[in-house]
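Marked as duplicate of an earlier ticket. Keeping the data here for the record.
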Amino acid sequence: MGNSSKPVVPLWTVWKRDRDFSKVCSLLVDPSPVSESAAIKRGLPAGTWRALQKIGLTRDEIAAVLGNSAKTIRRKEDSGEALDVAEGDRTMRLLRVITEAAEAFGDTAKALSWMRRPNTALLGKTPLEMIATDAGTALVRRALGVIAYGGVA
């Protein structure tokens, strides 16, 4: 997983400008599990991945979290094919954690930097590596909670 050479665009800027991403992010504003589940089952738009790239994630980083290849992500983006349930669920997990990290650090670039660095609280793994599973995501969210309340994680 490498650093993106593209400039990081603030999460909220992408949210406002990208219609597909806006729809997906609106699920975070009103975090009803019923609404989120229904949206994931309907199939989130593949444009959500493009929006994640606009905020600074690489296609390889997204693929690693999803358990897909970068080639599969590109194909779905190009065809406009909706995400399957597993892809949608993992994409929402990634989006939720990025949003929490951006809130904790007050800045998308700082949040992404933190997510790419090995972390002792995460057994030397990066948060991006850890959020590939539910259990790892719980640890990342716990670390973000510590940071949000003034601790170091």
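See parent ticket for discussion. The longest helix spans residues 85-105.
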